[in-house]
Design goal:
At5g01610-like; DUF538 domain-containing protein; 2 helices; ten-stranded antiparallel beta sheet; at5g01610, DUF538 DOMAIN; signal; DUF538
Length: 172
């Protein structure tokens, strides 16, 4: 076999490897951040629309999700939420812990949401000593930065909730 023919074969093999790796990527080997949430039993609406990327260390559950800038919106007209451009924490089946980058306005103060637990069809959001439970149905769609779930229809969505209160459970 001469040198030009060997080079042609090697080039052909490289092209086959590149195209097969792209096919594997598009077949679901690289899920979106929203698909990762679902794999850990969370609804996609826990994150706003517009996640542009994420990192996940599967053995530890450490993750980072990236938005194209900070994101704020109101839900039900009473809960103001703010997401930083990078959200960090740990994910496991039904639990987001050690969260950084998500805040909720309670009365006149902004407080960090530090944990989200799924219990059956409810999500409990913890800000440390206080927590609130919401039906998982509230998170079937992703809120949009600026307008939340009330983007143009004027009706708004009423959250089924237990208001933030002092939690009787202890978190680790």
């Amino acid at each position: 076999m001469n040198f030009p023919q060997s080079l042609t074969i090697i080039t052909f093999l490289i092209l086959i490897l590149i195209s097969s790796s792209k096919a594997a990527d598009s077949s679901g080997d690289n899920p979106t951040a929203y698909e990762v949430l679902e794999r850990y039993y969370f609804p996609i609406g826990v994150l706003p629309k517009g996640v542009i990327g994420y990192d996940l260390d599967k053995p530890t559950g450490k993750f980072s999700a990236y938005l194209n800038g900070s994101c704020s919106f109101a839900l039900e007209g009473s809960y103001q939420l703010n997401y930083k451009s990078t959200i960090n924490g740990y994910i496991s089946k039904g639990k987001l812990s050690k969260l950084e980058g998500v805040k909720v306005k309670l009365f006149f103060f902004w407080v960090d949401i530090v944990e989200v637990d799924r219990s059956g069809d409810d999500l409990e959001f913890s800000v440390g000593i206080a927590s609130a439970g919401f039906s998982i149905d509230n998170f079937e769609e992703c809120p949009q930065c600026g307008c939340g779930l009330n983007c143009g229809d004027g009706d708004g969505i009423k959250l089924r909730t237990n208001r933030f209160g002092v939690s009787s459970s202890s978190s680790s």
